[in-house]
Amino acid sequence: MILMVLALGCCGALADEKVIVTGQPEHHWDPDEVICKKGDPPAGSRIGRGQVCHTAARWKSIKANSDDDLRAIQDRDAWNTHLNGP
Question: Biggest alpha carbon distance in the chain?
Fold first, then answer.
C-alpha cells in the first residue's frame, strides 16, 4: 500500500508531529502459517530454484540458528586475529 507521511507545519507545537498512515491491517504472527520461499539451485545445475516450505516458527528457528552460526564465526575470526598478532 501507499505510505503517506503528513507533517503538520502550521502551528509551533504541531510542527514536530507526524502522522503515518499505511492502510494495511495489522498482521498477527501465526507460528503454524506455512511460508514458501525460493531455494538455492543444486550445485552445478542449470535447473531453476525449487521452493522450500516451512512453518513460520521453523523459519524463525532457521534464522536464529543462522544468526548464531554467523556470530560464532565472526567471534572465532576476531579471536584468531588477536592471537596471531597485533
Answer: 64
